[in-house]
Amino acid sequence: MFWEADTVFHYLDNAATTPVRPEAVQAALEAMTQGWGNPSSQYALGREAAARMKDWRAGAARALGCGAEEVFFTSCGSESDNWAIQGAVELNRRRGKHIVTTAIEHAAVLEPVRALERQGYEVTYLQPGHQGEIAPAQLAEALRPDTVLVSMMMVNNELGTILPVREAAQAIRQAGCPALLHCDAVQGFLKVPFTPKELGVDLLSVSGHKIHAPKGVGALFVRKGLKLPPLVRGGGQEGGYRSGTEATAQIAAFAAATRLGAESFPEDAGHMAGLKAYAVERLAQAVPEAQVLVPDGAPHILPISLPGYKSEVVVRFLSDRKVYLSSGSACHRGRPSHVFAALKLPKPVLDGALRVSFSYDTTREDVDALVDGLKAAEEQLFPTLS
Questions:
Q1: Taking residues 225-236, what's their average pLDDT?
Q2: Distance CA 35, CA 252 (A)
Q3: Bridge partners of residue 150, in order along the sequence
Q4: What are the pLDDT digits (tens) for 81-103?
Q5: CA-CA distance, 126 to 139, in Å (whole number)?
Q6: Is residue 180 helix, strand or coil?
Q7: E strand segments, 62-210
């Protein structure tokens, strides 16, 4: 629960963005008011900022489980995805023009892949099962000698389904193809356990505002020894890969959020999993018509549907009751979500799709408010005739 202008509201859209941790706010404030020097400057203030940058990078690397030299700060997860995809195909441009990804990736992956498709690359889009699952055998069958990139997300942002990234790495090795493996781990970082080495990935993207850091910061893991083409050329920051004066306040906050998130990860994951189970139980009791679309998967995402009721109408109805959640991107500018559409759900279920997402500070009272709101929506709203 949160309080804003003496009003209690219930926030259940943590897969969209998270409230910034107080410690991350404080870290950003200190970076702006005390350590505001340019890390490239050679005098004391600049050297102090550079030393802080080194510490922040090391902290983010510890949370990711990789080397500090493998972490490159970006402005967001979308930038990290775009850089990974474009850099990988440029690095492998002489080895082939085939890409494999899934039909349920985030737009930050699908849009750059589609742009490459328009430039002559051939793309295989792996289709999911009814709960968003991708079978490892699908990927193994799709690999070819000219496959230069495989991009597979860790956790689907709308369904919570966990995809077989580790198995993808094994399939690439067994096939002997030159493909680099990229993973969009924006919804997996500090939600499910992993390290890049355990996964066997070459590139991995994360975002700050999904883990209680501010918007405007993310990171890309680049496997040591992989010489990715620079994203931005200029003054040589970020090892020459992404030039431009570093956003020290955002990076300081990101480092603080990753440190705290890593320290409390087991407890936080258990708390979210418990809330998810509690929500499923309460829905079954109070709103039996509601359908849980993916009961398993990551602990923080629960996709449900109130069949026969338009999700955007339900979202507005709940918002009036100070309960905030998402239509799960089920309606984007009037069009169905590509993720839910890929599941081939019946139209009433697709129309009523909602995404509930938890965090370490979500409470049972928030879940109760959601269930009460959905029960009221069912009683007070008219179902659609479509």
A1: 94
A2: 10
A3: 100, 181
A4: 999 999 999 999 999 999 999 99
A5: 7
A6: strand
A7: 71-74, 98-102, 122-126, 147-151, 180-184, 203-207
Tens of pLDDT, residues 300-354: 999 999 999 999 999 999 999 999 999 854 345 556 689 988 998 899 999 999 9
Tell me if 274 sits within 8 A of 302, measured CB to CB.
no
Domain residue ranges of the chain, discontinuous segments joined by +: 22-263, 264-380
Tell me whether residue 66 is one of the annotated catalytic residues.
Answer: no
Model confidence at 8, in pLDDT bands (50, 70, 90)? confident
Dist. CA 263–CA 147, nearest whole Å:
38
The residue whose two tokens read 């990229």 is 182
- Which listed CATH number (3.40.50.11890, 3.90.1150.10, 1.20.1050.10, 3.40.640.10) goes with 22-263? 3.40.640.10
Instruction: List the CATH code of the domain at 264-380.
Output: 3.90.1150.10
Is the pTM value of this prediction over 0.90? yes
Helix axes 107-118, 77-91, angle to 10 degrees: 30
Percent of the chain with pLDDT over 70: 95
> Collapsing DSSP states into helix, strand and coil, what is residue 178?
coil
The CA distance from 144 to 150, in Å, is: 11
Q: Which two tokens stand for residue 225?
A: 């020894």
